[in-house]
From TrEMBL:
GO terms for cellular component: cytosol. Residues 135-199 form the S1 motif domain. One of its GO terms (biological process) is transcription antitermination. Its main location: cytoplasm. The lineage of its organism: Bacteria, Bacillati, Bacillota, Clostridia, Eubacteriales. GO terms for molecular function: DNA-binding transcription factor activity; RNA binding. SUPFAM superfamilies: Nucleic acid-binding proteins, Prokaryotic type KH domain (KH-domain type II), Transcription factor NusA, N-terminal domain. Participates in both transcription termination and antitermination. InterPro entries: KH_dom, KH_dom-like_a/b, KH_NusA_2nd, KH_sf_prok-type, NA-bd_OB-fold, NusA_N_sf, S1_domain, TF_NusA. PANTHER family: TRANSCRIPTION TERMINATION FACTOR NUSA (PTHR22648), TRANSCRIPTION TERMINATION_ANTITERMINATION PROTEIN NUSA (PTHR22648:SF0). The gene is nusA. Pfam families: KH_NusA_1st (PF13184), KH_NusA_2nd (PF26594), NusA_N (PF08529), S1 (PF00575). It comes from Desulforamulus aquiferis. It is found in: Cytoplasm. This is Transcription termination/antitermination protein NusA. Monomer. Binds directly to the core enzyme of the DNA-dependent RNA polymerase and to nascent RNA.
Length: 392
């Protein structure tokens, strides 16, 4: 080894990001093993590589002791002080024992170590890069499909999209570009294992942050998400600035911002509602696009009874209870939905109540199923569109 070898290591440092000292330290450790293996030595040894010239030397190491048990490992204090009077018990005495024909073995060992360390360092660099990005969004290309697992190419490595993290109804093909959410990064002997998801609620959050500058700036806060991937999602947003409409900002001009997200999620319907500290108003908004007549809440039990018009009952509950289920997840409240006629049966005096003041305005909400239809056809009652669709 010589100065040219050191220059090669410096080039590797620039190209691969592996420090020269790290490589030299690994080579020194490997040369010790090679020395013991080839020269049958059980004594302690140390290899030093000169950082300026690249020359290497092998030193035997013996401990300074009062009583010598093995001359290959120990040296008496008297003999040690003949070498240097400053030695004391517990110190280590070194003697150069570099074999004459050790150069060829050293070169071969150095090559193997460098290759191995390059691989390990690349794996560590990739691991650190992606470990710091857990909870972030990734762009990748479908590379191959094995046992229903989708392997997504990310340049120097690949991510795994497991069957449980794949969206229902999505068909993945080689070469498809996908946005995925990093769920976990594991360190394995074969390198980092990056587990990603298309169903995680965090994917929806990150997509909105990419599309809505106000979310990135912190003007708007995404308070909660409820998602049934591939079918429907609800998000609750809040604006710290009274002049900024959080729902409108997420919808975007002509619905373009939310439509881009819907397209990315292959048509998954998204309801955007305004978060409200008042639980009754928040629960009412969460049931969008259904109209709500009144909401009664029990704070201690976090239970809400919602009253809707008869013709809105099926819409409020949703197909197979989906709308009510998502609203419950979004708000964290148990929601009991009753129609006006059901309430009249339970409480005959219900029809005599003045309910005008109990009506809750849920206009601060947006449903991709109803409102995009409204914008396209200039219809003022988006809820009725959804109802008519269901009736048909």
């Amino acid at each position: 080894m010589n100065s040219e070898f050191l220059e090669a290591l410096k080039d590797l440092e620039k190209e691969k990001g592996i420090a020269v000292d790290v490589l030299l330290g690994a080579i020194e450790a490997a040369l010790i093993s090679a020395y013991k293996r080839n020269f049958g030595s059980i004594q302690n040894a140390r290899v030093h590589i000169d950082r300026n010239t690249g020359d290497f030397k092998v030193y035997s190491q013996r401990n300074v002791v009062d009583e010598v048990e093995d001359e290959r490992l120990d040296i008496s204090l008297e003999d040690a002080r003949k070498i240097d009077p400053r030695f004391n018990v517990g110190d280590i005495v070194e003697n150069e024992v570099t074999p004459r024909n050790f150069g060829r073995i050293a070169a071969q060992t150095a090559k193997q170590v460098v290759v191995q360390r390059i691989r390990e360092a690349e794996r560590n660099i990739i691991f650190e890069e992606f470990a710091n990005r857990e909870g972030d969004i990734l762009n990748g290309t479908v590379q191959r499909i094995e046992n229903k697992n989708i392997f997504i190419e990310l340049g120097k490595t690949e991510a795994i999209l497991a069957p449980s993290e794949q969206m229902p109804g999505e068909d993945y093909k080689h070469g498809d570009r996908l946005k995925t959410y990093i769920v976990e990064v594991r360190k394995t002997t074969k390198g980092p294992q990056i587990l990603v998801s298309r169903t995680h609620p965090g994917l929806l959050k990150r997509l909105f942050e990419l599309e809505v500058p106000e979310l990135q700036d912190g003007v708007i806060e995404l308070k909660s998400i409820a998602r049934e991937a591939g079918h429907r999602s609800k998000i609750a947003v809040y604006s710290k600035d009274e002049d900024v409409d959080p729902v409108g900002a997420c919808v975007g001009p002509k619905g373009m911002r939310v439509q881009n997200i819907v397209n990315e999620l292959n048509g998954e319907k998204i309801d955007i509602v305004k978060w409200n500290q008042d639980a009754s108003k928040f629960v009412a908004s969460a049931l969008s696009p259904a109209k709500v007549v009144a909401v009664e809440v029990w704070e201690d039990e976090k239970v809400a009874r919602v009253i809707v018009p008869d013709y809105q009952l099926s819409l409020a509950i949703g197909k197979e209870g989906q709308n009510a289920r998502l609203a419950a997840k979004l708000t964290g409240w148990k929601i009991d939905i009753k129609s006006e006629s059901q309430m009249a049966e339970i409480y005959p005096e219900y029809n005599q109540l003045e309910q005008g003041d109990s009506n809750i305005d849920v206009s601060d909400s947006y449903s991709t199923e109803a409102d995009i239809f409204q914008e396209q056809y200039d219809i003022t009652e988006p809820v009725s569109i959804t109802e008519n669709k269901e009736e048909k």
